[in-house]
Amino acid sequence: MGTTQLESVPEPKYWHLRTVLTEALDSEFAVGEILPNERDLAARFGVARATLRQALEQLELEGRLQRRRGVGTTVAPPRMGVAVGTEQHAWPGTGEDAWQAVDCTLAEPPASVAEALETDREQAVHTVRRTRMTHGQPVAAELLYIPESSVPELTAIDAPSGAARARAVLRELHRLELEGSEGAVELGSANAGDAKELDRLPGAPVLVVTTRYLAGGRTAALSVATYRADTCRLTFGDSGGVEIHQGPEQRAS
Hints:
By secondary structure, this protein is of the alpha+beta class.
């Protein structure tokens, strides 16, 4: 392995190193391969170890590297394609829904949720918590907010607590005629709850998919799904097979 000196560039040195390291990962290393230690890598690229650590941390955030205690830093596998919104006219929990119901609570919603649902803040809302796994790995956590008015026939006898109550709420929601849905995707940071669900550190980058379900001329349910940005890429449509291959300095996933 030769020695590569970084040229003078206007961008931060760690960011340029991150680009050079990305090229090396693509051409010299296989998935699961352990990288040389920090001392050797710093010597190869002619940088301080602090600069190297910044670049490695950035690549870990992007999902290109994985740090495993007792093993070292390894090349991460490609991101998993996770289908989102393939059924444009289906309620959550119907068809081939990949989510698993975990729990359900009834309480006053956050102000932003009440505003999105167009309900009073004091009006209780069912909050269904669901998780999504791919290849045995947690990739997403969802909070599904459903006003009591959307499931008026629900009773405590039918749904006492936990996952059973969550499934009962969804069954009642399916009685409504879905008129359509609206969605949006944005980049965010994992809060403490998301981090625990997704096996990540608080503040890790996530993709937040918000979906509003419409029935009876109003918002009948609101989904806020948080996806790991380091291990999955979201796909839309029936196939989700679109791939764009860019140079290392432009690659987004």
